[in-house]
Amino acid sequence: MMDSKEARVEIESLREQLNYHNNKYYVDNSPEISDFEFDALMRRLMELEAQYPEFSDPLSPSVRVGSDRTAEFASVAHRYPMLSLSNTYSIEELTAFVERIEREAEQQTEFACELKFDGTAISLTYEDGRLVRAVTRGDGATGDDVTANVKTIRTIPLTLSGENIPKMFEIRGEIFMPYASFDRLNAEREAAGEQLFANPRNAAAGTLKQQQSAVVAKRGLDCILYQMAGDNLPFSSHIENLEAARSWGFKVSEYMTLCRGAKEVVEYINHWDQARKSLPYPTDGVVIKVNNFALRRTLGFTAKSPRWAVAYKFKAESALTKLLSVDFQVGRTGAITPVANLEPVLLAGTTVKRASLHNAEQIAALDIRIGDMVYVEKGGEIIPKITGVELSERCTDSAPFEYITHCPECGTELVRFEGEAKHYCPNQGGCRPQILGRIIHFIRRKAMNIDGLGAETVELLFNSGLIADIADLYTLRATDLAVLPRLGEKSADNIINSIEASKAVPFARVLFGIGIRFVGETTAKYMASHFKSIDALMAADKQALQEAEEVGDKIADAVLEYFADPVNIAIIERLRAAGLQFEGEQTERASDILEGKNVVVSGKFTTYSRDEIKALIEQHGGKNQSGVSSNTDFIVAGENMGPAKLQKAEKLGITILSEQQFTELIAGVATTTATPAEVEQPKAAEQQVTQTTLF
Ligand code: IVH
């Protein structure tokens, strides 16, 4: 064993080497050592850090691998608000923008033209060359502190080196998911039966809000920085500052270009409208910014955005390809969705093989035929849309498309409801995808939140005859599950526990979970708070139903139809007998014991989920807070409460309750009284706005 001094020297040297090679690999794209050598250095560092915890450093390159602790995101006020940009899709408007600024400046002006990266905005604060905080945009004034997650993104430097680094500054940019990472992630999710991300932007934003930084570390996020703010930035123009930032270790776009006059700006746009298609990450436009800070100051801001910048957005990309065949999918409500199978074609960075066709009317309106060359476009959804047919390429022997008349799964004749464009299979009780779909919907997080059961396990249970409907879930025993292939004893116990816990799920979510056609999460909430019990809801006639908020003709009919079916009534009675909540409002007061109290919930719990604890707090009159502050009354802490929260709570002298103490408190047998901590008010953040503070 080495002595502590030697360990420290080696740790420091390893950190330096790893930071250097990380930057070479991820930022400069010119690695000097192999992945194997890099991993060996990292392993050695982690080994030493584990042996010598006294030398731990929150910015050690080992934080890149993340942690599996559950994070919560404190809200943080932005020192400089995070504004948005005004948008245009028109070259004329863009030209007018450039010319207006030139008129105001009374001379030809320098514009920095940049790509508009399609991800999620982040603001990074550095002090003394070290990353201290990473905050999301939030509402522009306040965002979420996602520092632990951001530290796992390898293109973001943890420590800076170089010249002219201000003592403190903020740098902002876009965290995005390159196409390769996105495709890999969705492929993994598909294999695991998890919901897919609609596009790389959603995937990036969703990943950044992950509770475990180790998950973030694996998802391959990237970040390009495009804007600086601070009181003493080294230069008086945007590009010079960003070039300096690049030299300190940040990834700054190599495609940022200085343009003069509208002509050069338009050339830049036209070039990138095409060239962006071969970039490995998503972009949705170009951002044009005045380069010179003095001119920016004269131009100033509107309430929402700077007058010195504008975003030109590209139109959605489309591609032409052949329609090979059409499949018909049957959803949980029996709705039929036609899906086109296409000859694979590259569109906005990913290969497209399937596209949505919506319904029979749309197919007829566009006169789409098998064998046609069709235009596909990507909107915000996972599946692209067919937007038209290239008639000049139609085969002479093509025939109009004939929509199906019977369910492709069970053969029942399809029906159409008035005012609905979709066809439906009415065989709810006997059509396999509908039965499975209903069970999968029931266990969803937003409904009964039965963890551990995924689409695949549901199918397995269904195939083995262990469940035939949602009520059967409550008859399952761990021993039934343990015999299934690929399911160990531990996962079986987990499933049984979470089925048990679902009995506490409030009425509104049960109502959503049972899957009445057209009754979404919000409608279920309104109905639950209007009728207060399933019995009252079942007794309501059409007129009474429509008295609930958001319930119109269509929903009222669907509710009546649902309760008219004796099969559904039998399921509800079995669920009721199993102990599910069929009455009570989610927000209905259980007591006033927490009246006026601000409560923070942190960590993992055993009897309740975190959301259930939060719901209990509300039911007893309290208010949930996301971060610890001086007006927090107490904290309900489970296992692994975040250390930052703990420290802050201790500093402010705030009472911490265990799960047990909390349940005793709301049961009215409190042994611990939660007294508001007496603390001094924190000083309002000093808002210094000096010369170079620009955003
Ligand atoms: S500058 C005050 N530059 O677009 C101006 N934004 O609505 C601050 N974005 O929220 C933004 N690429 O997330 C800027 N090169 C770029 C950008 C960019 C993408 C995003 C950013 C912002 C949104 C503007």
Overview in brief:
The protein has 695 residues and is an alpha+beta fold. It contains 24 helices and 22 strands.
CATH class descriptor of the largest domain: Alpha Beta
Strand content: 15-25%
Overall number of structural domains:
5
Unreliable stretches (pLDDT < 50, length at least 5) are 670-691
Beginning-to-end CA distance, first to last residue: 52 Å
CATH homology-level superfamily of the largest domain: DNA ligase/mRNA capping enzyme
Quantity of strands, as a count: 22
Overall 3D geometry? globular
Describe the structure.
The protein is an alpha+beta fold. The protein folds into five domains: 4-63, Helix Hairpins (Orthogonal Bundle); 75-313, D-amino Acid Aminotransferase, Chain A, domain 1 (2-Layer Sandwich); 316-425, Nucleic acid-binding proteins (OB fold (Dihydrolipoamide Acetyltransferase, E2P)), CATH 2.40.50; 432-578, DNA polymerase, domain 1 (Orthogonal Bundle), CATH 1.10.150; 598-691, Rossmann fold, CATH 3.40.50.10190. 36% of the residues lie in helices and 18% in strands. The chain contains 24 helices and 22 strands. Strands 2-11-10-3-9 form a five-stranded mixed β-sheet. A five-stranded antiparallel β-sheet has the order 14-13-12-15-16, with no helix packed on it. Helix 1 (4-27) packs antiparallel against helix 2 (35-51), helix 3 packs antiparallel against helix 9 (261-275) and helix 16 (507-513) packs across helix 17 (521-531). The longest helix is centred in the first third of the chain and has 24 residues, at 4-27. The model is unreliable at 670-691 (pLDDT under 50). 2-(butylsulfanyl)adenosine is lined by residues 83-85, 114, 116-117, 121, 137, 174, 226-227, 287, 306, 309, 311, 695.
